[in-house]
Amino acid sequence: MSDNLQKTAITPSTHTAPPAKFSHGVKKGNLLQVAGQVGFLPAVAGQPPTPAGPTLREQTLQTFANVKAILEEGGASWEDVMMTRVYLTDTAHFAELNEIYNEYFADLKEAPSARTTVYVGLPAGLLIEIDALAVLG
User: Fold this and answer.
1) Distance CA 10, CA 108 (A)
2) Which residues does residue 115 pair with via DSSP β-bridges, in sequence order?
């Protein structure tokens, strides 16, 4: 089956170029996949990425902002997200993550999406990573 839909890479101006050959987001047809985002502050030319802070709250809120920037660049919002995957470095952070998650999405009419949470290793100082899949239209 031939697929004539164009695939478009998405990198908001707030993000640095990825460290390898991948995109922060990819849109094809009505699907938008947001690659795993971490709690880096907006990019500053000539400076390495900097975490928002040492706490889970600071990093989670910045990670949400980074995911949201890609969603918006791709023409989507949190209302369009069908699936989020959360990657934590410490099982002890699960309850706090749920509190932050519930506060952040309190204004949405429905739960923001299906969600999976797993525990992983991330680069030093990073506590959380989140990716998302949105369906537009």
Assistant:
1) 25
2) 84
